[in-house]
Amino acid sequence: MPSSSPAPRRKPRQERSLFTVEAIFQSVRQIVATQGEAGLTSNRIAEVAGVSIGSLYQYFPSKEAILAAMLDRHCEKVMLELDALLAQGEQEQWPLADLVRKYVRHYLAAFAGGTEVQRSLARLSWQIDYRAAMLLAVRGASERLAFHLQRLAARAGALLPTPAQLFVLTRAFMGTVRYASLEQSPLLDRPELEEALAQLSLAFLIPGAEPSLA
User: Fold this and answer.
1) Is the distance from CB of 142 to CB of 9 less than 8 angstroms?
2) Which of 51, 69, 63, 53 is nearest to 10 (CA)?
3) pLDDT by residue (tens digit) across 111-131?
4) H-type alpha helices, 93-162
5) What b/e sequence results for 109-126 when a residue is b if at least 16 CB atoms lie within 10 Å of its CB, and e otherwise?
6) Closest CA to 32 of 83, 70, 84, 76
7) CATH code that applies to domain 13-61
8) What's the predicted TM-score (pTM) here?
9) What are the angstrom distances between the C-alpha of 212 and each of 20, 86, 97, 101, 134?
């Protein structure tokens, strides 16, 4: 999932600065939980965090920048979790179809599922659309996803996907998750979406294969 907002004005280094940033992040979660997405404004974030609006802007130039910073942290955490998942699957020699499905399930839950608050934050993050930054962020997130797909292909002993195949697959994968989140699709709570994404991934990794994912 891409992040796509201007960088924070100030990178928190001292303990007090880190505490302020954490308070800002927590206020975002609290507002979304109690007032919904429409209640999330810079002024309200500052009020709940217990800081002045001027102090807020010293760290983040906009509400979108706050969401992007939260997303950056979340993405890093999720990618480390997916790295660990792939390593576990390789070590324990899970069947490829099982490993792909677990990967898809974790990705969907991280970037489109979870609690109502988590789903709201995901939608808000997917809505960020700073054009140039968005393109860079999509490219970066796609490269991480492509790296994982290459590891899966190597695990299967298959030919590595071509750059064109990786481009199509990563954009199709991320685009599906993005629009499922934005449209609040009921498929997010049903196994069909997970299965379709897993089958799509396996079709690219092992052309001609017809894996059973039941």
Assistant:
1) no
2) 69
3) 899 999 999 999 998 887 654
4) 96-111, 116-127, 131-156
5) ebbbbeeebbbbbbbbbb
6) 70
7) 1.10.10.60
8) 0.80
9) 49, 20, 8, 11, 36
Q: How is the chain split into domains, by residue range? A: 13-61, 67-205
- Chain-centroid distance of CA 92 in Å reads 26
CA dist 93 and 83 (Å) reads 15
12 contacts 18 by C-beta, under 8 angstroms: yes
From CA 54, how far away is CA 181, in angstroms rounded?
33
Are 107 and 22 in contact by the 8 Å Cβ rule? The answer is no
Do the domains 13-61 and 67-205 sit in the same CATH topology, yes or no?
no
Distance in angstroms (rounded) separating the CA atoms of residues 109 and 81: 12
The CATH class given to the 67-205 domain equals mainly alpha
pLDDT tens digits for range 32-50: 999 999 999 999 999 999 9
